Amino acid sequence: MPSITRFIGDRRVRHATWSLVTAHFFAALLSTAASADDTLTQTGKFNFVNVTGDPYHPNFVPLDIPFPQDFGGIPAVSITFPHVGHCFQHAPWGTMTASNITMKGFRASVTGCFYPTATWTAVGPRLVRGTIVPRYLVLTVIYAPPGTNGGHSSSSVSYQAGSTAGTTTSSSRSFKTGLSVSVEASGGFFGSGGGAGVSFEASQSTTDSQSLEVKKSTSSTITQVGPSQDGINHDEDEIWLLLNPTVNLALSSSAAEWVLADTRSPVQYVHVGWLNGHEAMPVGVVAALQSAGITPDVYPDILARDPFANGSAALDTSRFISINTTFPYEPPYAANDPVPTSTYNISNSTIKTQGHELVDTFKVQISQFGTADFASFAKVKLSDATNWEWTNKSSSSSSAGTSQSAQLTIGGPAYGYGGPTVVQVYFDTIYKTFAFALLSASPTDAALRGTLIGADGVPAAREEVTLEESSKIVHETVTNSKGEFAFYGPISGDVTIKALGIIQTIPAVQFTRTITLLPKQAREQQILATPE
Fold first, then answer.
1. Does the predicted model carry a pTM greater than 0.85?
2. Residue limits of CATH 2.60.40.10 in the chain
3. Cα diameter, the chain
4. 8 A C-beta contact, residue 182 and residue 103
5. How far apart are CA 256 and CA 388, in angstroms?
6. Contacts of residue 395, Cβ cutoff 8 Å, sequence gap at least 6
7. CA-CA distance, 442 to 440, in Å (whole number)?
8. SS3 for 304?
9. Architecture of the domain made up of 443-517
10. Res 502: pLDDT
11. May I ask the CATH architecture of the domain 3-126?
12. From-to residues of CATH 2.60.40.2080 in the chain
């Protein structure tokens, strides 16, 4: 490489000229030290590039200098360079500055003339990376639909491709107050398990910098079948767990960053009835839980994620929002008649999420730290040195919910059943799944009821009927074996009803009437309202 000789005073200094294409800074680490107060000092050298090659009229290209080791906050950066007498009379004294300082590096700029080799020193919070392994994370809760005594009919709910059963999870409460907590921008993939070949995926929340979205992968399907008994049995509910998830941490004196590692951690579901001892847990499931350090003394903590696990519980309408959908749940007419089964698609697109955040917070024992050195550092930063705290939560935004759907098959109870005959569907805003409740209401409690008559003049059974309020809130139901339907809950304003291609607007003043949906001419398709 060619060289030039510069005379500075009575000194002769030889400098290498650098090609703009091939010349790069060199950042040889001179020293890296950390003190007990979490302060890290790093030092290095670099060379500037004079693109003119003219010592009398230099033009030095700014350099982006990466730190050999990331800091845990924005460091203070200083730059020094050798004293070489005075500059030429044709060029001013040089000035050197550090700008664009981040935890990963800075930009060095210079004007004027001076010796092109410089030394930088950066002092800032030390960043320590490592891992912890909590025993489990609750991924979602799958609620059982109503069943049929003797198993003569089968109800089921199926979360298929495109559904988003899962939760939004945060670990901010795991760290001491005062630390700035964030989630790394990448997520992970968690492998099959639970005897169903189901996988989950994680990605950073688009609305919360401290949270991850953990969802069932779109290629997986979760199907929950109703019990072989009439009514709803929450012992059949499934709680899905991620066993021994690895959490990658980056800690400093002022900040904490975490993310679930892509380790294909096993996924395992457990029935509520297994955890509360009503049914024997399969040996393989016991072994899977024990391998993650989950013993019977931990079962109550897992059960607490399902508010119906310990018997009947009042429905928390802030967490469980009605999707304005009901289905008939009626026994067959005669003892030897089959129990009818119908399949429908359900969605939470008819509801609006709450304007405030709902949380399900629980502590899980930490089974291991990555290294002894990291453990001693991390325990000082954690609010609890032995437990990791998960916060699974609903969306904090107030927006229309359109992301969840499922296929629901409803079969009625067995002959002789005398309980409630309407199933109402709710959406669990924390675990993004559907829950079911039997509605103890008589037809006279309905806001609007009627009978759907088909084109053949016969009551149309098992047909979908929708009602849309003037506020665009949509209600959905299905006719029973007699073609009867009913809409419950508060309904206001004029409404539009649709069924079998029939469309009719019903004024609010007619809500006290029972209507008959009766097609007249195919070209007219209208609804006739008849007083009771």
1. no
2. 443-517
3. 116
4. no
5. 14
6. 168, 207, 353, 357, 401, 429
7. 7
8. coil
9. Sandwich (2.60)
10. 84
11. Sandwich (2.60)
12. 3-126
